[in-house]
Amino acid sequence: MTSITRRSLVKGAAAAGALTASSATEWAKAWAQASPFKPEANASISVLRWRRFVEAEDAQFNKMVAAFTQATGVKVTLTSESFDDLQPKASVAANTGAGPDIFWGLYSLPHLFPQRCVDVTDVADYLGKKYGGWVPLAEAYGKLGNKWISIPVAVNGGYINYRISSLKAAGFNEVPGDNAGFLELCKAMKAKGTQVGFPLGRATGDGNAFAHWLLWSHGAYQVDDKEKITINSPETVAALRYAKQLYDTFIPGTAAWNDASNNRAYLSGEVHLTANGISIYAAAKISPDAKQREIAADTDHAFWPVGPVGRPAEIQLAFPMLAMNYTRSPNACKAFMAFILEAEQFNPWLEAAGGYLTHMLNAYDNNPVWTTDPKTRVFRESAKRSLVAGARGPLNEKAATATADFIVVDLFANFCTGKETEAGAIALAERQLRRIYR
After folding, report:
1. b/e for 174-188, b at 16 or more Cβ within 10 A?
2. Pick from 303, 218, 205, 310: which is nearest to 261 by CA?
3. 13-157+316-384 belongs to which homologous superfamily?
4. Which helix (H) or strand (E) holds 281?
5. DSSP alpha helix (H) spans, 286-342
6. What average pLDDT does this structure show over 152-170?
7. pTM to 2 decimals?
8. Could you tell me which of 404, 435, 423, 430 has the C-alpha nearest to residue 229?
9. Do domains 13-157+316-384 and 159-315+405-436 have the same CATH topology?
10. If you average pLDDT over every residue of the chain, what do you get?
11. Is 91 helix (H, G, I), strand (E, B) or coil?
């Protein structure tokens, strides 16, 4: 049997990626023998995940699943759903006690029904000890009190995607690091005919990212640490007024954008600046279409600007993996979660994602995906810069519900599109929050 040492597990993606098919199989089988997580006899599990945006990531993940089955004998049925459809399906499963064994979801999904989640504290402790500890964001999403109810596999960092040539044509050498300068950039780009666009539709990833940055960067929050509703504030008014000025630089139709709309708009040349994960760049860079590759060469990324609050105030898209307590194979679920986060599996997967996914375990800071291409480097920091759903308030079922119900997104959409006045948009958000925080 091949022995598994810490050195072999953490020496990095270069070595892991160099494994031949036979040595990878040998490693996986040795891991199954040594692992503290032993699947039930004749176990099979079903996994429902978010639909991929980077094809290479999906292909590598499928290899991980196949390796797990080969090593353990556990059959894994893998299906996927769009961002917007995954949470409703998980909620139905939690309510009915029937459905996939594992949900690989978004944001604070496990906190919608924490009593339905398998306790995976042993898995989290095993991985944390082995790989340099979890970032604070992982603990926030993964734990309820002292118990881990999910394993936060990764974060999809969403930052400013922009065309370098268009930025320079507008008179800027870089994306300004402050909100006021960022607004001036957007105005200048519109004046040059290279417009910008951010989603104000109910886009689970990008819409929430944009709207929460608008709110939090102005020092406005949904609730405080005692769950007192604080949305009706001068800071919220300031955020709305700033958002309206930005919205006036957008191309038409962004109020109906979903999570794929900004990708399409950027790659078609409709917009030259938006916010997204690195999927736009990753897909264009390897496209058979020469025009897409030209866009990739002309693309770079920047952090969200820092607003009046004076510090980063962003929400990044966490991908927690949870097992439902109705599963007949909880040990197989635990083994699967542990397996995919081992270095020999996780490092090649992180590289295949091309920066679209950011790790939650500190040992992966030096993965080559962050060091070989300067255009990926801002994304390495996303798990460490992000606030959690609810920001100041406790991360619990209420915070999870507020995010799932798009309250902050609707706040800005209602005002920017003229559907509501400032006071009306705030009053509506306040009423919605009161129904949740009662």
Report:
1. ebbeebeebbebbbb
2. 205
3. Periplasmic binding protein-like II (3.40.190.10)
4. helix 279-285
5. 290-297, 330-340
6. 97
7. 0.83
8. 430
9. yes
10. 92
11. helix
How many of the other CB atoms lie within 10 Å of CB of 173?
Answer: 7
Is the four-CA dihedral 427, 431, 433, 434 of positive or negative sign? positive
Please check whether residue 243 is in contact with residue 425, taking contact to mean a CB–CB distance below 8 angstroms.
Answer: no
Structure tokens at 370: 């962050």
Mind listing the pLDDT tens digit for each residue in 337-346? Answer: 999 999 999 9
pLDDT of amino acid 18: 46
CATH of 159-315+405-436, one of 3.40.47.10, 3.40.190.10, 3.40.980.20, 1.10.443.10: 3.40.190.10
Q: Is 40 helix (H, G, I), strand (E, B) or coil?
A: coil
- Distance CA(376)–CA(354), nearest Å, equals 8
Residue 412 to residue 201: CA distance in whole angstroms: 10
**What angle separates helix 55-72 from helix 330-340, to the nearest 10 degrees?**
130
- Chain center to CA of 200: 18
Q: Which one-letter amino acid corresponds to residue 273? A: L
Residue-level pLDDT at 13: 36
The residue extents of the domains of the chain are: 13-157+316-384, 159-315+405-436
102-104/44-50 β-pairing = parallel
- Mean pLDDT of the 186-206 span: 95
